[in-house]
Amino acid sequence: MIKPRCTRIGGLFASILLVAVFCGLLGQAGAQEKSFLWQLQSANSRFYIVGSIHFMKKEHYPLKKVIEDAFDNVKKLVLEIDLPDATTQKAQAVTAEKGIYRDGTTLRQNIPSDTYALAERRAKDLGIEIKALNSFKPWVVALMLTSLKLQQLGFDPNHGIDRYLAKRAKQAGKETAGLETLEFQVGLLDQLSKRNQEMLLRQSLNEITLLDENVNQIVQFWSRGDLTGVEKLLLKGMQQFPELHQKVFAERNRRWLGQIERLIAEGLDVMVVVGAGHLVGKDGIIELLKQRGYTMEQL
Fold first, then answer.
1. What is the per-residue pLDDT across 39-65, written as a single tens digit (0 to 9) for each?
2. Which of 145, 182, 268, 278 is 20–30 Å from 261 (CA)?
3. CA angle (35, 293, 49) in 5-degree steps
4. Please, which residues have CB within 8 angstroms of residue 172's CB and are 6 or more apart in sequence?
């Protein structure tokens, strides 16, 4: 049995559902361009929100100066999960506990034959025998194949923005925290219905073939802070799966909103870092904060 070593829970959802969150910051932005960084207009504190890219290349660092400077201005870093606490070993253990069939059945017995055949073809293209994945549930297979494809393209979760900033925070002695736990993130996928897990896998298998074609366009949108372009490319696949969108994005965004408002009320200098897909659209955190009366400036 192979271990789900490609899985990095900090980038769990973006690596599966968002074709764009593995893109880097390429080239220099013009004066009129923005970044995926927002600042709350407040006289009491410095409060920033960054859209994270979970798969990057080492060559993409340092980040844009405006992001690096904002990080230097804060005392606390809040991530989707507290990455310093979510070690690779812990992530593997939690994923294996939830993501392996314990009832004697296999992947092949739990998904339609055409989806299994598609998974077999995609796995073969990536150099994996589908038999090696048969003990895993659909959401784990989706994670593993997508992560492997991204790594073959040269993108590494170890160089994701969230991990980069978490490492910098540790080196600088800044406090870190998480909006949710590792166990919650894994449980969210594992609690999806059998049908939704199969849809998640199929969507991921279809998107794998688009990664090479879309990456340059996505990079351009992300690097210049083009919300409309990023939203279109990030969320277009989710339009077919409204239930998944609600659970993975909308519901989590609303839960996070209360925590973010409490952080704002504390008046501390804070940077919040979440997947870029959580910041765009009418259900995105930026729009939700604006609806609550906060003034958010994109930098």
1. 998 768 899 999 987 887 788 788 899
2. 182
3. 30
4. none
CA-closest candidate to residue 54, choices 17, 92, 96: 17
Q: Which two tokens stand for residue 156?
A: 């590494």
Give the 3-state DSSP-derived string for the chain, with helices as H, strands as E and coil as C: CCCCCCCCHHHHHHHHHCCCCCCCCCCCCCCCCCCCEEEECCCCCCEEEEEECCCECHHHCCCCHHHHHHHHHCCEEEECCCCCCCCHHHHHHHHHHHHECCCCCCHHHHCCHHHHHHHHHHHHHCCCCHHHHCCECHHHHHHHHHHHHHHHCCCEHHHCHHHHHHHHHHHHCCEEEECCCHHHHHHHHHCCCHHHHHHHHHHHHHHHCCHHHHHHHHHHHHHCCCHHHHHHHHHHHHHHCHHHHHHHHHHHHHHHHHHHHHHHHHCCCEEEEEEHHHCCCCCCHHHHHHHCCCCEEEC
What are the tens digits of pLDDT across the range 30-44?
445 789 999 998 768
User: In this structure, are residues 298 and 38 in contact, taking their beta carbons and an 8 Å threshold?
Assistant: yes
74 φ, ψ (degrees, to nearest 5): -105, 160
Other Cβ atoms less than 10 A from the Cβ of 93: the count is 13
Among 60, 69, 210, which Cα is nearest to 146's?
Answer: 210
Dist. CA 12–CA 182, nearest whole Å: 10
Distance CA 299, CA 243 (A): 33
296-298 vs 37-40, strand pairing mode: antiparallel
CA pair distance 151, 188, nearest whole angstrom:
24
Q: What pLDDT is recorded for position 88? A: 77
* Rounded-to-integer distance, Cα 255 and Cα 286, Å: 14
- State the chain's maximal CA–CA distance in angstroms: 59
pTM value is 0.85
Are β-strands 76-79 and 47-52 bridged in parallel, bridged antiparallel, or unpaired? unpaired
Q: Report residue 261 as tokens.
A: 């408002």
Q: Closest Cα partner for 48 from 78, 19, 22, 25?
A: 78
Q: Which two tokens stand for residue 115?
A: 């989806």
